[in-house]
Amino acid sequence: MDKVLDSPADAVADIPDHAVLAVGGFGLCGIPSTLIGALADTGTTGLRVVSNNCGVDDWGLGLLLRAGRIARMTSSYVGENKEFARQYLSGELEVELTPQGTLAERLRAGGAGIPAFYTPAGVGTQVEEGGLPWRYAADGSVALASPAKEVREFGGRRYLLEEAITADFALVRAEVADRHGNCVFHAAARNFNPLCATAGRITLVEADRIVEPGELAPDAVHLPGVYVDRVVAADPADRRIERRTVRPALQEA
To answer: Is there a single domain that holds both residue 24 and residue 131?
Structure first.
């Protein structure tokens, strides 16, 4: 029952080339940066990553991207990463852009064993019609485009069929985890982390604090340990602020 490993390197050691990863976090909030750093050190490549975004140029998943380790991204927002845009437009990276709520529900459905669901998001757009560039060729033409989606009508409204997402491994950041894998997330860091955790066949959690079984009140647990396979201590230095906005200094009268 004790799922705590000695190091992040031990936790990611068996992630193979071309694995599908579900990675928690939103922007730089709640990202499993310690596990990502350990994975970057392994040399694993050809990764197919599902995450709300791809970090920034020099942090988070941006480290794997910059090293050429990511082959495909399924995301909803990628606007903070110039290297991401360069690789996508040059045909080095395959990208499936997905509405944010749809991405969250695809992960939730995968974790719940639901193969697909209908949603109104994207009706009447290229999400429905297909043709969105997933991968460009070197000459700028579209090498691979999104397919058209199945449409059904319920109660007079049209809905698109979206397939669930599951992953070989999930990488997650928690504020507190006990040795059995029960997790608590802090504030907005409870974003995509629980969804990714349930969608992963093997789930790795890094936690700011690891406690003994019984120290977490059952009602306080956000993610039950049944979904978690490995727990490691997060590096407290692995924190970044994506955008810092401060009030201009007041001028003396």
So the answer is: no
204 residue type, one letter = L
Q: Which domain holds residue 154?
A: 117-163
CA 181 to chain centre: 19
Domain assignment of residue 247, yes or no:
no
In angstroms and rounded to an integer, the radius of gyration of the C-alpha atoms of the chain is: 19
> Is 242 within 8 Å of 57 (Cβ atoms)?
no
Residues 200 and 51 sit within 8 Å (Cβ to Cβ): no
Q: How many Cβ atoms are within 10 Å of 12's Cβ, its own excluded?
A: 25
Which residue, 35, 15, 13, is CA-closest to 23?
Answer: 35
Tokens describing residue 223: 């993610």
- Spell out where 76-187 has E strands: 94-97, 116-119, 133-136, 142-145, 151-154, 157-163, 167-178, 183-184
Q: What is the pLDDT of residues 57-110, one digit of tens each?
A: 888 999 999 999 999 999 998 877 899 999 999 999 999 999 999 999 999 999
pTM passes above 0.90? yes
Q: Yes or no: say if 210 and 175 are a contact pair by the CB < 8 Å rule.
A: no
